[in-house]
Amino acid sequence: MYQYESSKTLFERAQQSIPGGVNSPVRAFKSVGGTPVFMEKAKGAYLYDVDGNQYVDYIASWGPMIMGHAYEPVVKAIQAKAEDSTSFGAPTQLEIEMAELIKSMAPNVDMVRMVNSGTEACMSALRLARGYTGKNKFIKFEGCYHGHADAFLVKAGSGLATFNIQTVPGITAGAANDTLTAPYNNLDAVKQLVAEHKNEIAAIIIEPVAGNMGCILPEPGFLEGLRTICTAENIVLIFDEVMTGFRLAAGGAQQKLNIQADLICYGKVIGAGMPVGAFAGKKDIMQYIAPLGNVYQAGTLSGNPLAMIAGYTLLKELKENHAIYTELEQKTVYLRNGLDRVCKEAGIPYTINQLGSMISLHFAEHAVTDFVSASATNIERFKQFFHAMLKRGIYLPPSAFESWFLNHALTRDDLDKTIAAAADSLKEII
Ligand code: PMP
C-alpha cells in the first residue's frame, strides 16, 4: 500500500516558502486533489518518491526523457562537461555542433538560436515574426499553450485549462489585444480572422499536435490549410514543437505530418531535461535577430555548456538510432490497444487520442478535437482515475488537459502492468 507521509510533510513545509508549494502550478495536484508526490530520483521508466514508492512514469518530465530517466550517456556527458565550468558567457564550439545537429535533423532550419525555456522560444519567435513582417497581431488556438509570456496567456491550455483560469491578472489589455484566437482544427475560423484583419497578422502559432488539452491531433487538411493561408498572406507559420520536436520523429511534427513551418520552437527535449529551448528557421527570417538584425533577443545562460552537452548527446542518439521512433510508437500503440480493451470491458464512454509516443485517454464518447470537446469530457472521472492509477504505481499527468508521454525504457511488463492497473482502477471508480 502506497504511503505519502514524507511527501505530505514536505508539501506542508514547501508551502511556507514557495507559492503553493511548487515552482510550476500543475505540479501542485490542485486540480486532482491530494498531496503532490515529491520525487527523489528516477531511472529508466521509473520514478521513486521520498516515501520509497516506485512509479511507472508517463510524464517523462513533460516530454524530454525520451530515452528514460538518468540515461547514462547523458549523465556521463554532463558530469564530464561540468569539470570545464558550468558557464562562460562566451561562445563555444559545442554550440555550433548543437546547431548543426539540429539543422541536420529538423526540416526548414538554416539557423538556430538557443534560449533557456520553451516560453522564451515562443516569445522570441513571435517577436521575430512581428519584426520580420512589420505586423502586430497573431493567431493562436484555444487550448494550446506556448509558455507564460503575456501575449500567449489568452484562452491557453495546460495549467490555465486545468485551473480554469480565463483571464490572468497582471496582463495588460495592450499585451493581449493583439492575440486573436480560433478553435483548434477550425480552418474557417482562421480564414475569417485573416479576412477581418487583412494585412495585420504577423504569425499563426500552433502546437502541430496539441499536448496541452490532452493529446489532440490535427485533422487532415488543417495544418495544410494553415500553410496555404500563411503563404498567401505573408504570415509566418510558427510550429511550437516544444513537445513534438524530436519526439514524434527525428524531424518532429514537420517530418511526421509532412508540413513545412517558417519558424519552429523547441524546448525541453533538446536539453534532455536541462533548462533549454530554441527557435529556428530559414535564414531569410532568422537574420532579423540581433546581432545580425535589430530584433533583440539575448540570454546570459543561453547555450549553456551543460544544457548543450545533454541535448547534443540525446539528439545524436535519436538521429543515429531511428528504430527508437518505431519502437516508441509500437509501445504506445500496445498501450492504446490495452486501454481500449479495458475501457470497453468497463463499459464506460471514452476516447483515446494518440500519435507516435503521445497519447491521452478522455472520458467521453465524442471525438476530442478541440478545447471545447476536451472540456466536455468527464474531468471528475479523470481525477478519480488519476488517483486510482497513482496508488497502483502508475504516474500519469495530474490533469485531464495534458498529454501522456512514453519513454523508450518502458518494457512490455511495464505496459502490461499499466493496462492491468487501468482495468482495476476503472473497476474501483465506476
Ligand atoms: N510550448 C509548449 C507546446 C509547451 O508544452 C510548453 C511547456 N509545457 C511551453 C511551450 C513552455 O515551455 P517552458 O515550460 O519550458 O517554458
UniProtKB/TrEMBL annotation:
The superkingdom of the source organism is Bacteria
Q: Which gene encodes it?
A: hemL
Q: What is this protein called?
A: Glutamate-1-semialdehyde 2,1-aminomutase
Which principal EC class is assigned to this enzyme?
isomerase
The annotated subunit structure for this chain is: Homodimer.
Q: Which family does it belong to?
A: Belongs to the class-III pyridoxal-phosphate-dependent aminotransferase family. HemL subfamily.
Keyword check for Isomerase, yes or no: yes
Q: Where in the cell is it found?
A: Cytoplasm
